[in-house]
Write a structure and sequence with these properties.
Largest sheet: 12 strands, antiparallel, barrel
Strand order of the largest sheet: 17-18-19-20-21-22-23-24-25-26-27-28
CATH topology of the largest domain: Porin
Number of helices: 6
Helix content: 10-25%
Shape: elongated
Radius of gyration: 46 Å
CATH class of the largest domain: Mainly Beta
Strand content: over 45%
CATH superfamily of the largest domain: monomeric porin ompg
Number of strands: 28
């Protein structure tokens, strides 16, 4: 190998034609470390690079240009950084700190400032002469031992025909496959048996064929999972398709592990290997891993991830399942008095209800409630009561009801109620329908309507505030023709000579209620209200209640 490098050093020395072979043999040593720079500006097709003489660049040299990428992984949410080759550039001018380059061939992408430039195995600069500096280009292909030292064709000044022929061969083979280069090197050696480079070319051809055979025997990953569903505390099974492998091992580590843990993979079919990572190894937030495959000759090589840059998978933390909410039972009792006419006793309503309810779920069939109610009142139209001074009509209803609450979503529900009762005219009925925006255990808004036997109808809007845990607050408005919303016959059934009332006027109510949570299960409530049918036909109201839950 050292002799091969020495021969290539001599070829580079002849290409520069600047010193004797003995002097350059002491100076030239293969530079295999890559120098990295960046495109700092693009000017009318020329690329300004931030590398120059200090990077051993020479005019005519070719360098690689790479596009850096930084992408947020859609599964692991981590930033993945890499770069991709987009072509080669030719150095056209070199300065101490900068250089000027142009595309050597068509690039896969338009060059941009920030693109990475790689100078692989840069050649030493040649001494200056009257015409300026000249240099030897270094190809980017380093697949063979001396590839980094292969010069590009030069003018051939100061070279013999043998050397010019070898340089022309190297130039023609740039970018060719290993097999083709080995074949052409052997063909050149057979046709130029007197060349002093025969031994070198045959050795180079043999090295290329060995590399090709090694590549053909090396295990190859054919398929692998694109993403992992890794959960903390749960085992993870991984299966890979690896051809030309005698076996495979998985190296894995969690954040708290100082080093990798090796797990042998089991053959589950031709070219298929699988392993189960124990649950102890899966710890949030990430899991690092790579896979090595064992070739037929016993050598191992990474095929899935690398030790220095392992693959990372997000390990989702254990999701605690919420325990099903226990069924909540509630008993309520409330009463409400509303005076519509300045306590004159001719337009008022008194309603009392008791309720037993079960809260089943948060969504779906949320609750079922059943209860009873007593409604008593008197009323009539403003004209009959205030102007004609007629006697009000009595209204009474004792009823029972069944109510359900159905919630297709956490913050929306529908509440229908069916009412059956006994009034002055016998059995009667009614109903109520409410829509709840929000959740009954949180701040929510109710609105809807009610029709209640001969009592009348009313529209309802109610806001329940759960801002203060110990002091639940309620605001409610009603628009209704209760309590005497339906009229009796025109005839005087009792024969007392008084005219029966035919209708009532619509009134409005405003209600404010505040509760006090004495203990977690017991709430006491008090309310005040104001209602009226006109400015002069109005009055206050009050009420209260108690609620117990378990």
């Amino acid at each position: 190998m050292a002799r091969r490098h020495w021969v290539m050093g001599v070829l580079c020395a002849w290409a520069t034609a600047c010193a004797t072979a003995h002097a350059l043999a002491d100076e030239l040593s293969p530079v295999t470390k890559q120098v990295e720079g960046y495109v700092v500006e693009v000017q009318q097709g020329d690329l300004v690079l931030d590398v120059g003489v200090s990077a051993r660049l020479v005019v005519g040299q070719r360098v690689q240009i790479w596009r850096p990428l930084s992408i947020k992984h859609p599964v692991t949410k981590r930033i993945v950084k890499d770069r991709f080759l987009i072509g080669e550039l030719e150095i056209v001018q070199v300065r101490p700190s900068l250089s000027l380059a142009r595309p050597w061939s068509e690039l896969a992408r338009e060059p941009l400032p920030g693109d990475v430039v790689l100078v692989a195995g840069a050649a030493l600069p040649a001494p200056s002469n009257a015409e300026g500096s000249s240099g030897v280009a270094t190809p980017s292909d380093t697949t063979s031992p001396s590839a980094a030292m292969q010069p590009s064709p030069s003018t051939g000044e100061g070279m013999d025909g043998d050397t010019r022929g070898v340089l022309a061969l190297f130039g023609a083979m740039q970018g060719a496959s290993r097999q083709r280069r080995a074949t052409e090197y052997e063909r050149f050696a057979r046709s130029h048996r007197d060349s002093k480079y025969v031994a070198f070319l045959l050795g180079e051809a043999e090295a290329l064929r060995v590399a090709e055979r090694s590549e053909e025997l090396r295990p190859l990953l054919r398929s692998a999972p694109r993403e992992f569903e890794a959960r903390a505390g749960e085992p993870l099974r991984i299966a890979l398709e690896i051809v030309r492998a005698r076996g495979a091992v998985l190296h894995v580590r969690s954040p708290q592990d100082p080093s990798y843990v090796t797990l042998p993979m089991v053959a589950i079919g031709p070219d298929y290997y699988a392993v189960t990572i124990p649950k102890e190894r899966l710890v949030s937030p990430t899991l690092q891993l790579f896979v090595e495959a064992v070739a037929e000759d016993g050598t191992a090589a990474p095929v899935f991830g690398l030790p220095d840059t392992p693959l990372e998978a997000e390990v989702r933390p254990i999701e605690m399942q919420d325990a099903p909410a226990p069924m909540r039972t509630t008993v309520k009792l409330w009463t409400d008095y509303a005076d519509y006419n300045r306590f004159r006793g001719n337009d008022y309503a008194w309603q009392t209800e008791g309720e037993f309810g079960l809260r089943l779920n948060d969504e779906g069939a949320r609750a079922v409630r059943s209860g009873f109610g007593i409604y008593r009142g008197v009323g009539g139209s403003v004209d009959d009561l205030d102007l004609r001074d007629l006697e009000p009509r009595d209204v009474g209803l004792t009823y029972g009801y069944l109510e359900g609450e159905f919630a297709p979503a956490h913050a929306f529900s529908l509440i229908p109620r069916v009412v059956v009762g006994l009034g002055d005219d016998g059995v009667t009925g009614g109903g109520q329908i409410l829509v709840r925006i929000g959740n009954d255990l949180e701040t929510n808004l109710l609105f809807g309507g009610e029709a209640l036997g001969s009592v009348g109808v009313r529209g309802i809007a109610q806001l329940e505030l759960a801002v203060f845990d110990r002091f639940p607050i309620l605001f409610r408005t009603e628009v209704a023709n209760q309590p005497a919303g339906a009229s009796p016959s025109q005839d005087d059934d009792e024969g007392d000579g008084l005219r029966a009332l035919e209708s009532t006027d619509v009134g409005a109510r405003g209600i404010f209620e505040v509760g006090f949570r004495a203990v977690d299960t017991l709430v006491l409530r008090a309310r005040g209200s104001f209602q009226g049918r006109t400015i002069e036909h109005a009055g206050p109201g009050f009420g209260g209640g108690v609620e117990y839950s378990w």
